[in-house]
Amino acid sequence: MLKFRNAVLVFLCALLISSAWAQVSAPTQQPTSVSEWTDLAYSSFETIPNITYRRANNTDLKLDLYLPHERTQPVPLLILIHGGGWVAGNRESIVLQTLPYLQMGFAVANVQYRLASNTPAPAAVEDCRCALSWLFHNAARYNFDVNRIVTTGGSAGGHLALTTGLLNAEAGFDRGCTPPDDMRWDKAPTTQPRVAAIINWFGITDVADLFSGPNAKGYAIEWFGSIDNRDQLARRLSPAYIVSKTSPPVLTIHGDKDTLVPYAHAQKLHEALTRAGVRNQLITIPNGGHGGFSLDEMRKTMTAIRAFLRDNKIVQ
Asked: How far apart are CA 106 and CA 150, in angstroms?
């Protein structure tokens, strides 16, 4: 999981040398170069930190919003979820990953969730689903386009980005979400949030595969602790098994030498999505590990991400 943090630095370097900047709203006019974008970015966006979107297990769960000042029209929303094997990590460590999406015209929500030391599975999944619900029901306040919500994350964050987008209310992981005040006492929400696309960076897609055998990982075992019937719950939380024909498009990036999350997880998800007829793409990083990709690999991947978002009519 720690190698993913190294990818962030490579990620930023790729952004700064890229010449494909577009759609950034400045107070007066469009920036004309990379250096001008970095000079003006601070005045083009606002940050609203430490918004409590849920309280669970005596924990105030927070998210930070990064918003374009120019929101006269509804803007697409990216939900960014950190990794760390569901047992470590924090949202502060991935702030730089907001940059390419801000540049593309997104608002970004950087989400905290409960780790295993606070509450075992499925708490992290419930929290991220509740963050989606909170953002959906507060969309008018910030002028988010609820038809252009994208989730992304790496490793365990990739898993949570997938479950946030692939699950629905019928799965039962949304029941602890706090509804809007006007729906709390006399009616239930009639419209459920829907994710338009998912960008999955080497996420776990078959949770039970990590409990025993050659792919067993301590972080997965720790996340479930001594829960009864863990294999049954793990299947309900495994993206490869919750795909349906109505699932949103998915782009997966995974190194074929990853030792923390097996590359086979990416292949299994890709096959499940293809069988269901869901638009999806698997970008394989040859000899790539758990993040830490080269500058050239990151440049090509970011180009593919932009094309994926354009093809799915999320950005222009």
From this structure: 9
